[in-house]
Amino acid sequence: MAGTNRANAPSELDIEAARWFFQNSVDIFVLIRGGIISRINPAWTELSGWSVDDTVGRPIEDFIHPGDSQIVRDLVNTLIADGKARAEHRLLSKDGAVLWVRSRVKRGGADATIVVLQDVTAEHQRAAESADAARTNDLLREAAGIYVWRFDPETGLYDIDTDLSRAGARGASGSRTITADEMSSEIHPDDQGRVGEAFFHTLATGEPRVVEYRHFRAEDGGWARLRAAWRGLRRRESGKWDVLGLTQDVSEVAEARDAALDAAEAKSQFLANMSHEIRTPMNGVLGVLHLLKSENLSPDGRRLLEEAVGCGQMLAELLNDVIDFSKIEAGRLELSPEPVDPRSLMDSVAGLLRPQAVARGLWLNTHAEPDLGWALVDPVRLRQVLFNLIGNAVKFTLTGGVDARLSRVERNGADRLRFEISDTGVGIAPEAQSDLFQRFHQADGSTTRRFGGSGLGLAISRRLAELMGGEIGFSSTPGEGSTFWIEVAAPRVDARAAEVDEAEGLLDGLRVLIVEDNPTNRLIATRMLQQLGAVVETADDGQQGVEAAARSNFDLIFMDIQMPVMDGMEATRRIRALPEPVCDTPILAMTANAMSHQADSYLAAGMNGIVAKPLSPTALVAQIAAVVARSAEDAAAEGRREGVGGRK
Ligand code: ADP
């Protein structure tokens, strides 16, 4: 046979090639005869570690993972039936490691079997790792309520790699796809605008954003609190931004945070109430102590009394600090800005503290930039902060002295006053500097014993600085001294408008209506305005105010806000609805509620400005001057009637 068809018989070359292939293949070749291994190629030894001596003469089953013996039995059965078979199973290598192999088996001749094994261990490892990662993801989702998503701007679809089941959006699990509309419909209506805005920003710029919002929770029909962080991922083809995000259910954290804030609020409320309660009897005790001073006392008794008065005053100061601080914390401290000469304000504070400084052999000097002018600030609160800063500087200086400097600065186009208090005192250690503005914080524990104080002063000063539209800060070198500075928003005002004496007669002949239900306030306002030269009429409530305004054409109306029968807002709206020229009369709100959001609502009701109660002549004049100036500008611009009621 071999001679008749040479083309089908393997040539020398074929045999040579087969031998080379057998020797050099990365796949394992095993030849089995009569059930035992008779030949292996080097790949076998390379991958499994078993040598020729270890292997030849043994059944291949000896090298197969015991867990896979059933697979091998099936393989042999198929081989017997079909002449060939394939399977995937594990091999045991010599060092005990497990190899995953894909095996192809073929009968070759009488009792010979050829086995080819391909190493697929790496493939199996990858599969196992990705299964692991998937399990970790599941765990993350279940335990921490985290899921990942990707938004495709081309299709307008979100791919979400989770079930959102904890956030409770839907019941289905695994990854899903939803439209942008579906996504936003599950967000709380009040949060949709904010989330949408942040999202579109990322779509347009790719910049990352983090938002917290409420998301519908199917379990109980309530709202889950979600926190989402996302960023853009630029598509190479279109240049558009995909958005890649991670969302976490933070309901529990958010609820805990809210509870903590509520508790803190309740605590500071309690502190404020208690301090108020303590202050009244405290004042009684102090009063009695002062009375005792005029009694006949032994020298020893007098010394004890002095001590008691000193302690009482410290306690009273501490109480005031606590009340102030909790008021500020609760947002209940309101400012009453008025025209102030900042230089004399600083001088007066320094004047109060100078005796203390001089008694200790220290200097206390003030320096002010020339031409500072007047400014619209709350003098009570500004004085309080300066008192604290200059007081501290004196307190913490043992030799040398204190310099207080005042200048005007501009920040973002707004006028500010800047006070700088430098001392040559003990200074503040670097490690204490970062917490200095925290409440109850003192630079070192021995401070209270050495110098006294509550540690609230700087915390209050910082809040006040912020309330006054400014900032506070310091620099300090231990042993050399400290410089504390504070800046507050301080719009310039006309000094002339602020000087009441000079302002006398400023409103000569001006016809003013005061609408105010409280007789005392009515009287005070009337007197003040009359002193300035105005002719004053009064009305007891909003209703009467509207009638009076309609009857005679006033130059200016002062309107209380809270009144019986008709409040000031309604009265203002009605006056604005009256025929010309009455409807154009400038109206100033007179109120103790002069916080900015309230001020906005007064202006929205048609008022032209606000004077804060308790009334001060300086504030009155400043506001009137401002309204007069504005009306004059309007009149000039529109070429209409003259300013405030045509005053000549
Ligand atoms: P206190 O009522 O204790 O003075 P403050 O809040 O005013 O409370 O100050 C907090 C702490 O800051 C002080 O106890 C002191 O340690 C430190 N401190 C404040 N001002 C100065 C200063 N000018 N020099 C050195 N230390 C200062």
Q: How would you summarize what this structure contains?
A:
It contains 21 helices and 24 strands. The protein is α+β, with helices and mostly antiparallel strands and 648 residues long. The protein has a 6-stranded antiparallel β-sheet with strand order 8-7-6-11-10-9, sandwiched between helices. The chain has a 5-stranded antiparallel β-sheet with strand order 2-1-5-4-3.
Tell me the CATH superfamily of the largest domain. Histidine kinase-like ATPase, C-terminal domain
CATH class of the largest domain: Alpha Beta
Question: What is the molecular shape?
Answer: elongated
User: Quaternary status of these chains?
Assistant: single chain
Q: Which ligands does the model contain, each kind named once?
A: adenosine-5'-diphosphate
Strand order of the largest sheet: 8-7-6-11-10-9
The CATH architecture of the largest domain can be named as: 2-Layer Sandwich
Strand content: 15-25%
Q: Whole-Å distance between the termini?
A: 138 Å
Number of helices: 21
CATH topology group of the largest domain? Heat Shock Protein 90
Catalogue the unreliable spans: 1-5, 163-173, 640-648
Q: Compute the number of structural domains.
A: 4
Portion of residues within helices? 40-55%
By helix and strand content, what is the structural category? alpha+beta
Overall pLDDT confidence:
82
